[in-house]
Amino acid sequence: MRYSRRTVRRRLAWPAVAVAVLAGACGGGGGGGGGSSTGAGKGPSGSMVIGTTESLQNSFDPAEAYDYLGSEIIFNTAETLVTYAPGATDPSPLLAAAMPDVSPDGLTYTFILRAGVKFSDGTPLNAAAVKFSLERAKAFGAKDPEAAGFLLDGIRSVATPSDTKVVINLSQPNVTFLSRLAYSVASIVSPAAYANNVLTGSETGPGVTARYKTDTIVATGPYRIVAYKEKESVDLEANPSYWGTAPKTKRIRVRLFDKSSALKLALQNNEVDVAFRSLQPDENAFFKGRPGFTVVEGKGSGIRYVVINVKAKPWDDVNLRRALAAAVDRKTIVDEVFKGSATALASMVPPAFPTSEPKWEQLYGAGAPPPTTPASKGAPAPTGKTLVDKYLSAAGKAAGTVPVELWYSPTHYGDTEQAVAEVIARSLEKTGRFTVKVRNVEWAEYGKKRKAGEMPVFLMGWFPDYLDPDDYLEPFSDPNIFDPAKWDDSKMAELVHSEQHLQDPDRRALTLRDAQAHMADQVPYIPVFQAPQVAASSDKVSGVVLDPIQIFRYWLLEKKG
Amino acid sequence: MALTAPLLLLLLTATFLLLRVAPGDPVTATLGDRASDARVEELRHSLGLDEPLWRQYGSYVGGALHGDFGRAITTGTPVWKTIRERFPATLELTLAAMLVAVAVGIGLGAAAARYRDTPLDVAGRILGIVLYAAPIFWLGILFQLLFSVKLHWLPTGGRTASFAEPRHLTGLYTLDATLTGNLHALGEALRHLALPALTLGLVIGGVLVRLVRVNMLQALRSDHVEAARARGLPERSVVLRHALRSALVPVVAVVGLQFALLLSGAVLTEATFSWPGLGQSLYNFLGDRDYTAVQGLVTFYALFVVFVSLLIDVVSAWVDPRIRYS
């Protein structure tokens, strides 16, 4: 049969119309904000693309956000009363005009607010907005244990004697309070924009989370969110009513990648300008020294450690835990897996803090190689093997081997995790006293198993909320906060409680050291290593500042040419 | 069509059961490490995950029948919203890949048949097998390394360059850019579409090469083609107008069936090229064991395949009047 061209065209037109109608129907949602058509080439002048493998865990609401990406976006779109300047380890004023007056008993903090600051919705910053934001976040924290609001639970009341004066009263003195105020949870948001996003008191469960303002943020920061596409991108543009120095780049797109390999290719092909958090060590090494690219390294604040479930047999025996600690070879992990770029940890409190006490190394050596800190002056340093035998004998296992089931999650902490687990397993077996079975499971199941206590020995990581040694001790001593090792120790709880309340820095330092010594002695955790923060970028990009504060400051980034 | 409803029900049931058998827990994935047992139980209760399996199943099938796919457990986003936002990307990729597959399949298949037992035929057949056997992610990575990293011709992934999205009309970037006359956006959308479509299209094209070749060989030996030759028509006209046309009738039906294969291939292609489509969402939701989202997306995929099959049946009947459906 022969068809006329008109007939064919008519017949072909139907499927085309059907497809167009289907596409139209599917596309009706607006694509989550979409982007606008602007500029030419790889983006308009004054734009930058940041690639990351992070994804948003919950929302952009400061009262809820408790993850890397959420906090990072909040740090660039909102501001707190105090913050950390690049490289600083002590807070400095931001929305506060000066550092607060603190009462001698450490219970009252009085702030005077900076003048002339406006939210991105045009409403002014005042004392009422500070009271609203802090009380709002605290209220969410009381109802939603997964939210960051618990960091503000020490606030008893917030008073506003005037439009520019805020008085915060604490229920107990807490020397970490200013550090907590610098975290994204204490960001000040516009009361007008969040009027419907407060708790009335009767909400429970999903009713609480339904009150968050999830997809945008209205605050005073250098940028504002213009679009968010789930697991795809976040678009920011400079806040036109920003009170401070304008950001150096007008538009920022944060592109979210599933895999570091895709992010690496995108940077290599100039589709992203900066790759941050996280390329793998070998991918970062690829860009090091390569023409057209630059790699910036900064001290990290996250730590990686081994958890020993102290309730699981036979690990309820402290001497067995000590033997395990003596066998873990941190140096080989750093050398083999991270090519020397990571730092071996001798305490749960990283060495960046003056109060860090290398107790694990002092007690258990550095693993297979001789320890760097002698246990006692003049005496030869014990080797890992000697210590393993000593503690196993004390546990009644003078001969034979102890089976260890070592768990890790293969993707959550990056592609290096398997290698880390294998090196640990090898170092344990090298002593001839442990037989290791390495097992892994994806993160969703990993969390479930951890909570159920089904993993006796496993790898974990901790990334602090605020920059203070306390945040490396309290979560591991309070079962109400985080309880991976099932370790409920009254002495540890008391030590942490004391250091939080001691106003005298010297006495506090002493208590912090005692707390580390006690934790090392009981060994529910074995600190292993600390990886640096690394950003790889086009060499046209400047302004990348990486410091332990974990604020990636977009407003300093600039692209030339 | 009579089998459509039971097949859909079977698919829904299999998806429901497989997700619950697989290790992992969406509640833990949602709440993270610090969640208290009480909070976990609370969320489990609010999601109905503490109910007996049969009741969960009934609620799921009932919802699906009413077009209610619920909200993703891990993100709280309505599943329909994810479909609305992400499906245009998958549809665009699938259609472009189908174009590549048809062009490669018909072109190579017809040429191989026309020049039977020549080196061109052998090469075409081998290429067909190789393409069909090639893992999508392997071919995709190979293309990325060659065209993006080595030659810098094409981007490694994404739907378009940053800040180059066309104004939203249908969600198909190439169509939206054309309709709005935004040539820059059209160029960027096509550049980004090229490698994923080529990867997916070549794999599917491998199937079509062999099919077209076999049909074409039969057609070239058929009476009506011999008659055309006897009438003294030029060989080009005989091959293209007479042999190829009749050889394509069964191919149209197979192309429709390949849509299901294309959609499953799109999951891997999207993951390889960071293509923000429904396949990538499915991949992510599977990782989080997000029952609701996975069930919703799989049901949608199934309905879409049914829709396309129906469309192909109608087109086949139009193209070949001998085809009649009771």
Overall description:
- The complex is a heterodimer of chains A (561) and B (326).
- With 561 residues, chain A is an alpha+beta fold.
- Helix content of chain A is 30%, strand content 18%.
- Chain A has helices spanning 5-26, 68-77, 127-143, 177-181, 206-209, 260-268, 281-287, 318-327, 330-337, 359-364, 384-394, 417-430, 443-452, 474-477, 490-501, 505-522, and strands spanning 47-52, 82-83, 92-93, 101-102, 108-112, 155-162, 165-170, 223-229, 233-238, 251-256, 274-276, 293-298, 303-308, 343-344, 402-408, 434-440, 457-462, 525-530, 533-538, 541-542, 558-559.
- In chain A, the strands form five sheets. A seven-stranded mixed beta sheet of chain A has the order 8-9-10-1-11-19-12, sandwiched between helices. A six-stranded mixed beta sheet of chain A has the order 14-18-13-17-15-16.
- Chain A is globular and about 75 Å long.
- The N and C termini of chain A lie far apart (62 Å).
- Mean pLDDT of chain A is 86; it is low at 1-44 and 368-381.
- Chain B has 13 helices and no strands.
- The termini of chain B are close together.
- By secondary structure, chain B is mostly helical.
- At the A-B interface, helix 1, strand 10, helix 6 and helix 13 of A face helix 2, helix 3, helix 5, helix 7 and helix 12 of B.
Question: Tags for this entry?
Answer:
heterodimer, A: 561 residues, alpha+beta, 7-stranded mixed sheet, 6-stranded mixed sheet, 18% strand, globular, disordered N terminus, B: 326 residues, mainly alpha, 0% strand
Share of residues in helices of chain B: over 70%
- Cα gyration radius of chain A (Å): 26 Å
Shape estimate of chain A: globular
Mean pLDDT of chain B: 85
Would you tell me the structural class of the helices and strands of chain A? Answer: alpha+beta
